[in-house]
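Changelog note: in this version the structure field was regenerated for every chain. One regenerated record is shown below for reference.
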Amino acid sequence: MYNIVNPQQIRLFDSFDSILTAKTRKRLLEGWQGVFRHIILELMPVEPIREHFDPALGRPTKELYSIAGLLLIKEFMNWTKPETLDAYSFHADIQYALNLEPVAHDLSMRTIERYINLFEANDIAKTIMSKVTATLVKSLDIKIDQQRLDSTHIFSDMASFGRTRLMGVAMKRFLTQLKRHTVGAYESLEVSLRQRYAPGVNQLFADTQKDSESRRLLREQVAEDMHFLLRRFADTPEQAHRDSYKAMERIFYEQCQVHEDKVSVKEKTGGNIMQNPSDPGATYDGHKGSGYQVQIAETCHPENEVQLITTALPQTAAEPDNEAVEPVLDELEQTAMLPEQLLGDTHYCSDENVQKAQQRGVELVGPVSGSEKVKEDASYKRLNIDDFDIVEATEEIKCCPAGHRPQSSVHNSQTGKTKTVMSPSACRRCAFVDECPVTQHGEGYRLEHTAKQRRLAGRRREEATDVFRERYRVRAGIEGTHSGLKRRTGLGQLRVRGRPAVFHAIYLKITGWNILRAAACAKMRPIVYAKAHKAVGMLPFVFLRTIIAVGSVCVSLKKYCCAPSRQGEKFSMISKAA
């Protein structure tokens, strides 16, 4: 049976009055606990959790708003599960934030694990982030028209293996399952093969020499062993359907190749490969290592008192940044937080991404990859296609920088190129002939360009201006957000592994970061005070005034009945009744 207490419900008496002084209450209201209790807690989506319990039968659950809030606090405070249990049971500030009575509360490890599984299965963390972010942006009047975009790397709680050890660990896991469930099949394997993968993970291949030749031979041996096991149990459904077999199969075909029954290890595998059988969702980034990453869009308007993260897109580490712009814009559009200007670094600001953003009314601002360096010598001003007068609708050139009209300018819609022929007499006597991109072909002068070349040339010219540098300067502020997220919430090194658990933690930690930033905003304090006053501030006074009024009536009746002049009337009334 589910148990839900609406956080907006008004209390007769504030149970914290007996344990809080005026100063400690002020600290709670002005800290993140007050923001959580009076702004965030009511946003927790308890409906998906309630569906898993009967409305009338069974033992009552823990109060669902408080449990959902506890899981959110757990992540952005970076607590372990035992620390979470202690905070729920004994910490008065956490009980205040969760709308619980300030007494000891029982909560088991199994219960918290069950609710975490429900969160991951129903993708509740993403819903929480969307609702909390929208509420904070609206409450604090955050301007979202200017935002910045960047990604940060995240390590999950898994060991990092080399290629040989990775294959060896995968086989060891499979052989362990085989020995546990099918002893006969395990003992039918060669003793040398079983002994090779019998040591613990940390001791695996410890007796192998460290020189390059020994490592190469070991890697080939491990690859052949893996190929043998895959063929040996491929036609045995009981073994082939195991997760350990599937992981071994995936690792083999990512790391090795078979040519005419000869097994060889690939020289290069790319980054989109399994890094550890215990975390099949993690991939590899050549610069930062194995794990995951998250694309973060954050407000950067100078008038905002604090900047909040508007959306987060968790990904595996191998996902390229240049493919993240469109999904991020989709997320921002769904939550009605699409900006007018989005700042990104070189990886995001390809011409294709700029055009996709422009179709949504978003200006994607950032450097062009491979930008040409502009010489500081004022006398050197090399011309490019951006200096020509071009009709953007047709990509046809009207005149060159010197004002000469071309003999012809024809755009081919199939190839996307525009071929322009200039007058030889005009080009020969032109003062800009050495700087002009028009080239001589025989007796004629020609120029070919595409719309992409024209746009990139214009952006490169803009990058060299002080206006662009001043405009782009605020993008660097998101690096401080990444650092703060990792130091304050533990985003850099998670306590979990596996794609569902990792994405769950990422969403809740970023949500918590927004709550912490909102608590530091002066605009939030009067909002919290007003809600706290509405919840428990006026009701005790009204209730006491009612008690006093009722008490006054009782006192008046007592005086009337007990007065000497009324005693006779009272006894006569009793006699008549008898």
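Spot check on this record: The chain has a mean pLDDT of 88. The first strand starts at residue 146 and ends at 154.
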